[in-house]
Amino acid sequence: MLMRALAGTAFPELNAALAGRAGAIEITGISADSRKIKAGMLFVAIAGSKADGAAYIEDAAEKGAQIAVSAAAVDSAKIPVLQVDNPRLFLALAAARFFGSQPETMVAVTGTAGKTSVAAFTRQIWAQAGHSAAMIGTTGVMAPGRKDYGSLTTPDPAVLHALLAELAGDGVTHAAMEASSHGLDQYRLDGVKLAAAGFTNLGRDHMDYHPTVEHYFGAKMHLFDRVLPRGLPAVINADDEWSGRAAEAAKAAGHEVLTVGRKGDFLTLKRVEQKRDSQFAEVLHNGAIHEVRLPLAGEFQISNALVAAGLAIATGVEAKDALAALEKLEGAEGRLQLAGKAAHGALAYVDYAHKPDALEKVLAAVRPFTTGRVVVVFGCGGDRDKGKRPIMGEIATRLADIVIVTDDNPRSEEPEVIRSEIIAAAPGAVEIGDRREAIIHAASLLKTGDTLIVAGKGHEEGQTANGVTRPFSDLAEVKKALEGI
Ligand SMILES: CC(=O)N[C@H]1[C@@H](OP(=O)(O)OP(=O)(O)OC[C@H]2O[C@@H](n3ccc(=O)[nH]c3=O)[C@H](O)[C@@H]2O)O[C@H](CO)[C@@H](O)[C@@H]1O[C@H](C)C(=O)N[C@@H](C)C(=O)N[C@H](CCC(=O)O)C(=O)O
Ligand SMILES: Nc1ncnc2c1ncn2[C@@H]1O[C@H](COP(=O)(O)OP(=O)(O)OP(=O)(O)O)[C@@H](O)[C@H]1O
Ligand SMILES: N[C@H](CCC[C@H](N)C(=O)O)C(=O)O
Ligand SMILES: [Mg+2]
After folding, report:
1. d(Cα 317, Cα 298) in Å, to the nearest integer?
2. Cut 0.80: pTM above it
3. What pLDDT digit, counting tens, does each position of 182-203 carry?
4. Mean pLDDT, to the nearest integer, of 61-77?
5. What is the mean pLDDT of residues 390-398?
6. Fewer CB within 10 Å, N or C, the chain?
7. If you take atom 2 of ligand 3, which residue's CA is the nearest one?
8. For residue 353, how far is its CA from the centre of ligand 4 (angstroms)?
9. Ligand 1 surroundings by CB, under 6 angstroms
10. In this chain, where does the modification N6-carboxylysine occur (predicted)?
11. What ipTM did this prediction achieve?
12. Residues with Cβ within 8 Å of residue 84, at least 6 apart in sequence
């Protein structure tokens, strides 16, 4: 592609340069990481939290970059360097234009918890309606005949648009993706053409990245005020503390607001009956009641399922078909996933709650069908928000009968220090650093009627400490531990 093809109204500051010699440069690819540059590519220099991409322009040139784009003026480089005000936005729009195609119908969902679940559910509803559908998120990419393990919740634009073009080339017509607050803040989604967008809820998360909760909420709202084209549907869970403000933000951005949930107008949850690991709900839509059997535990899953159904309906699935599809939903990997049942009947679940609200929701979700005790095993990640540690300790102590505090990716931190910060607010908790031992101990305590939740790692396949990631799966460990009792 010629650089000239990247000219457009979004970057008037580039137009003069692209009308000249720089516009005639043919590029073979785009990356913001000099380590990924190959001959003929365009390098976009981004000023990040650890490094300034502008310092890597020479490195990119040595690897074969033809041209670079940067916020800072760099005259000394061996390749032309064009200046733009917002290189991250440029990267997103340039990658979209370079790769050129995406599944026709795309939605994105934001919120503190439930994004992976909503994306997974939306994909399944579309698939049941006969569409070739994909999901992109924390657990990776899932598409017909394809399952890749995930890295980022919202991939970097160059990776994302290469993937979207591949999916479109494979015949995928519908895709649901997660919009993380980092992704929105860093303009990773700005080149994606969305047909609708969703919001689940807002709680404490990523306080190591966002200076305040307001800033965090503002980042999430960029899905509506920057990414979703004006006038398109915004599906909002109506039952969260932040729902009103999210709906206001979506309305102010000119969208059609569709609220779902107990307080929702578009899909109104009238009644829920909890079964042991499923639930029955009555949902009102357009004056008609639909009976829905959801084969998943946890009331929060109803909320996720309604956001997903709202997104599917907003993108053309008949309401009755979308709601009927909920009866066959499979939970996203590692989200309140039943890992096994002990011989005496106790249930053991693996869950991805690694933040306060999620832990609170998941522990509350299993209580109604637990006739014995709720046992929880969890830890907190190192090099992440330290403030959540005592909060999660307090929640576990309040909502579980037995609390076992263990390690969850200590990364570069001292695991004992992390554990002690949790236990400061969890008096009476049992401390077992080794996660495998903690799970074995928890399983050995189980009796008839008890429920075990191993929280924090969900689908993850490793435990990271001291810069080394060793294979580790909560699901496999729980299964093994149950066999041993
Ligand atoms: C904190 C964060 O979000 N970091 C992201 C951010 O990096 P940064 O701004 O810190 O970049 P940096 O390391 O300072 O480097 C600046 C630039 O120099 C470039 N560079 C650097 C070194 C070099 O040799 N050559 C070179 O070109 C880098 O590629 C980068 O473009 O921009 C990079 C490029 O877009 C991202 O890859 C990177 O994600 C890192 C890997 C990450 O771990 N992010 C996590 C925290 C994240 O994004 N998580 C969210 C949320 C998950 C959730 O919801 O729980 C997600 O969407 O996954
Ligand atoms: N609607 C919800 N409200 C509160 N908690 C939820 C909700 N949905 C899921 N959870 C909890 O949050 C955990 C993560 O769910 P999910 O992966 O769907 O969310 P996410 O927003 O993608 O999270 P992440 O940002 O960590 O990728 C679940 O394992 C469960 O404990
Ligand atoms: N996307 C999140 C996942 C956290 C998962 C938890 N297991 C941990 O390691 O803290 C993060 O990287 O902060
Ligand atoms: Mg996710």
Report:
1. 25
2. yes
3. 999 999 999 999 999 999 999 8
4. 92
5. 98
6. C
7. 354
8. 11
9. 32-35, 46, 48-51, 53, 56, 152-154, 156, 180, 182-183, 186
10. 220
11. 0.96
12. 11, 13, 14, 69, 70, 71, 90
The CATH fold assigned to 101-328 is UDP-N-acetylmuramoyl-L-alanine:D-glutamate ligase (3.40.1190)
Which of 361, 363, 388, 457 has most ligand 2 atoms within 8 Å of CB, for mutation?
Answer: 361
Model pLDDT, residue 203? 86
Structure tokens at 19: 């009308």
Structure tokens at 73: 């003026």
Tell the CATH topology of 3-98. Answer: 3.40.1390
Nearest CA residue ID for atom 10, ligand 1: 49
Domain ranges of the chain: 3-98, 101-328, 337-483
| CB 332 less than 6 A from any atom of ligand 2 | yes
Percent of the chain with pLDDT over 70: 100
Residue 138 alpha carbon, nearest atom of ligand 1 = 58
Q: How confident is the model at residue 458 (pLDDT cuts 50, 70, 90)?
A: very high
Find the mean pLDDT for residues 98-111.
Answer: 97
Pocket probe mutation, ligand 3, options 151, 216, 409, max atoms within 8 Å of Cβ: 409
Q: Which fold has domain 337-483?
A: Protein-Tyrosine Phosphatase; Chain A (3.90.190)
